[in-house]
């Protein structure tokens, strides 16, 4: 049964990435990277209902309408031409409130609240279906195992098969129509998880689990603040931090990893951070915001990794520094929303990627 269910999972990666120190893409010792002219990307105009479009290039685009309420550590995901903002923290309290942004009209609308008030859930779209995994409520000190499927026709969240391990601050990624839930921490207390669990939405079942292996002294193989995304058949994850006892004095790991069912490869991060977000567009990985040595050391840059050469480009300034922002992509456009930098934010911005996003 395992072989049949895992047949759609990634193939073995033959060679692991070199662990030489990370260099920026324009470092004289870095591999040569051919110039990449930014192609035009078209974004439908809200005022004309998407009938016309404005050409945009790689870099910051116009600001979009703010979130209806400030949010941090929430789920932001694109699904079937709409962008969903689900649960999270608002004004220092967990919330279940959820909203949808129509990319054609440029308007936010409320949808049914998630059945539980949580921060740090995993929100993922799989072939036009929106799923929400887990989360945490600090006053009850409970990590949830719940899995929810949003039904847009009924405007309702439907219960699905619970996770094998209740989690918050986990990473998640969609590979071959299956959802990987990676790392994070669970009950009791703040127990760190060194495990990847794979969910098949068609079967409504958890079909595979395997361990995350340690890597030298850089990372013990478990971490909170994990965030992940997929590029084709490969899952990329930022390792986050293993420190919980000395919170808020964090120690972000210096490596990220890419994973298959059978192996891991590692790549150094030149500006380590945790509570950031990852997204892949085309052959580039975007690492957005987060915090560095403490929860108040807010990152004000976006790091961009060229997946073909595995070199980092120069960091790009963000519109504002923040940890716990929401990040997603749709049709080659990178959307960044909310986050926290002394207060929860309601900002909603976009950046241009290079190619249309896939699998959503």
Characterise this structure.
- With 360 residues, this protein is mostly beta strands.
- It has a single domain (60-352), classed as Kelch-type beta propeller (Neuraminidase).
- It is 1% helix and 39% strand.
- The chain has one helix spanning 2-5; strands at 41-44, 53-56, 59-60, 75-79, 82-86, 89-90, 93-94, 98-102, 107-111, 122-126, 129-133, 136-137, 142-143, 147-151, 156-160, 171-175, 178-182, 185-186, 191-192, 195-200, 205-211, 227-231, 234-238, 255-259, 264-268, 277-281, 284-288, 301-306, 311-312, 316-317, 326-330, 333-337, 348-352.
- The strands form ten sheets. Strands 26, 27, 28, 29 and 30 form a five-stranded antiparallel β-sheet that branches. A four-stranded antiparallel β-sheet has the order 3-33-32-31, with no helix packed on it.
- Strand 24 (255-259) and strand 25 (264-268) form a beta hairpin.
Overall number of strands: 33
CATH superfamily: Kelch-type beta propeller
Described by strand count, sense and barrel closure, the largest sheet is: 5 strands, antiparallel
CATH architecture assignment name: 6 Propeller
Using the coordinates above, name the CATH class.
Mainly Beta
End-to-end CA span:
28 Å
Mean pLDDT: 78
SS summary, helix count? 1
Total number of domains: 1
CATH fold label:
Neuraminidase
Give the percentage of residues in beta strands: 35-45%
Low-confidence stretches: 1-58, 354-360
- Sheet/helix structural class: mainly beta
Shape: globular
Helix content: under 10%
Radius of gyration: 19 Å
Primary descriptors:
disordered N terminus, mainly beta, 39% strand, 33 strands, disordered C terminus, 5-stranded antiparallel beta sheet, 1 helix
